[in-house]
Amino acid sequence: MKNKIGFNVLAWSAAVSDELKPIIDRLKTTGYDSVEFFVGAPDESAYKSIGSHVQSLGMETTTVFVLGADENPIDPDAGVRAKALDKIKWTIDRSHDLGAKVICGPYHSAFSVFAKRAPEESEYERSAEVLHKAGEYAQQAGILLTPEALNRFECYLCNTMDQLTHLIKKVDHPNVKAMFDTHHANIEEKKLGEAIRKIAPILGHVHISENDRGTPGSGHVPWDEVFSTLADVGFEGSLTIEGFTRNDPDFANSIGVWREFSQPWEMAENGLTFIKAMGAKHGL
């Protein structure tokens, strides 16, 4: 399989610390090519330590993060938008410490912050301005930014590939592309294959996530359609499993994960087998 396959360690923890090293080691022996980390923990030295460890194993890294209400790129207050840019730059620095080449997540706007109305064009323009400046900073670090569309219950600016395409075209920077997450698309898109084709020209990263965030292949996401379309459009980026558990209660509570869908290692082992089988079936 030519695509790299990754696993997001949020299934265990939102922290970046030495406690992840045995997990990373086992992901390597399981057969993963890359590891995805949540950037948020304040201990900056830990990012370099973990990055060096991943590099020593010959693995790659990607990262994900979110922004809060006081650092919202679409806020009318220029001071709030400046905080958003500062947080994105800090995340780029920490991702660089980890050796990451891709940063994904819904940082086009603040996570779970709603205006009780539909998105306005001025908000896309403000987001695009912040992301363009972030793209300039990311370019210096050799990092690709891939903002993510989320379902309607977690954000309102970008729920669909139509909206995400509109935003990324406004950003107009080579280091800012898009990501596709099968969990969110399962909620918001009519046809996942059509959605992938729509975003394909600017697609930089893909999350392989089941409809309930459990083990890929165990739910009702139309996986044959997803993998065949990714093959048809020639996607060459990483396919990263993002599944959630209650292992890290604070993180789980923040995203509304109230029950267990799959145990982390069951998700990692069976998910890898599933992706490889689908890749072989569809020529990825």
UniProtKB/TrEMBL annotation:
<protein>
    <submittedName>
        <fullName>D-tagatose 3-epimerase</fullName>
        <ecNumber>5.3.1.-</ecNumber>
    </submittedName>
</protein>
<feature type="domain" description="Xylose isomerase-like TIM barrel">
    <location>
        <begin position="24"/>
        <end position="253"/>
    </location>
</feature>
<keyword id="KW-0413">Isomerase</keyword>
<dbReference type="InterPro" id="IPR050417">
    <property type="entry name" value="Sugar_Epim/Isomerase"/>
</dbReference>
<dbReference type="Pfam" id="PF01261">
    <property type="entry name" value="AP_endonuc_2"/>
</dbReference>
<dbReference type="InterPro" id="IPR013022">
    <property type="entry name" value="Xyl_isomerase-like_TIM-brl"/>
</dbReference>
<dbReference type="GO" id="GO:0016853">
    <property type="term" value="F:isomerase activity"/>
</dbReference>
<dbReference type="InterPro" id="IPR036237">
    <property type="entry name" value="Xyl_isomerase-like_sf"/>
</dbReference>
